[in-house]
Amino acid sequence: MPYFKQPKHLQSLMLLQWPLSYLAMFWILQPFFIYLLFTSLWPLPVLYFVWFFLDWKTPEQGGRRSAWVRNWCAWTHIKDYFPITIQKTKDLSPEHNYLMGVHPHGLLTFGAFCNFCTEATGFSKIFPDITPHLATLSWFFKIPFVREYLMAKGICSVSQPAIDYLLSHGTGNLVGIVVGGVGEALQSVPNTTTLILRKRKGFVRTALQHGAHLVPTFTFGETEVYDQVLFHKDSWMHKFQSCFRSIFGFYFCVFYGRGFCQGSTGLLPYSLPIVTVVGEPLPLPKIEKPSQEMVEKYHTLYIDALCKLFDQHKTQYGCSEDQKLLFL
């Protein structure tokens, strides 16, 4: 696959750690603020936590995005490391709202993160007057400071109230849902195109209730940047992963990539191109209480549109001509 030749820019290995450092800083602030409660600076954490509870519903009411955070130079370094790009197939009219299916999940969802949560790839210029929101696990927004960081990037809760709010307040909103969810992370191994979608129909029902257009997307290269150790379903490790998910909401995946030295193994992703192709929107009627038959109809049309999108671009981005999407 000549498209996926490894670029030589070792300096980006260090730059890739910047966003992780920012996130780690927010985690460190929490015990630090607790410590401040027992010092003369105790009013600072008290004021923040009072405001935290008064602001509790903001993540489900559109959030609080920051153009400054979305334009941090760290995101550009991530984009350049792989590199990550976005390809538009059709314009998105700001007169409508959109519910976007993000496929595949991958391990860390680099493509969706860079393309929809930052301006590193120029989303606002490619889709003018469209406001992107990528939905993630709701409990992240219950963590002090982490919630501020996520909201600043335009990330929203995947809860039903949060999505309903965005699709019912104004137009030009694009809400991205990783339909396969965390379960799809276990399917993330190189040279695979396995999606958990066959029984995932709730997003179609939500789109029908709001008359939002469905937008299929596929990120080529997302599953190529890490190797993953897979465990048999009867193994104790797989049971541990399932138990971990029941507690924390996501799987404990064992994966590896490259190290800092050429040819070494480590936790850095392989620097392979990641391309998110945004498909043509599928118009849906607005039906307050859609029947199961109506949901099935548009779910089938969505899968057909996703397959068409994949087939049209697969050979251009490293897949073989006979490779097909596998739905679970």
Automatic annotation (TrEMBL):
Swiss-Prot/TrEMBL keywords: Acyltransferase, Endoplasmic reticulum, Lipid biosynthesis, Lipid metabolism, Membrane, Transferase, Transmembrane, Transmembrane helix
- Write out the coiled-coil annotation as residue ranges: none
The domain of life is Eukaryota
What membrane topology is given? Answer: Multi-pass membrane protein
> One GO CC term of this entry?
endoplasmic reticulum membrane
Specify the enzyme's EC class, one word: transferase
The subcellular location is:
Endoplasmic reticulum membrane
Q: What GO molecular function terms would the record report? A: long-chain-alcohol O-fatty-acyltransferase activity
Listed CDD domains: LPLAT_MGAT-like
Q: Where are the transmembrane segments?
A: 35-54
The EC number(s) this enzyme carries: 2.3.1.-
What is one Gene Ontology biological process annotated in the Swiss-Prot or TrEMBL record? lipid metabolic process
Q: Which PANTHER family match?
A: ACYL-COA WAX ALCOHOL ACYLTRANSFERASE 1, DIACYLGLYCEROL O-ACYLTRANSFERASE
Q: Which family does it belong to?
A: Belongs to the diacylglycerol acyltransferase family.
This chain belongs to which protein, by name?
Acyltransferase
Q: Name the source organism.
A: Lynx pardinus (Iberian lynx)
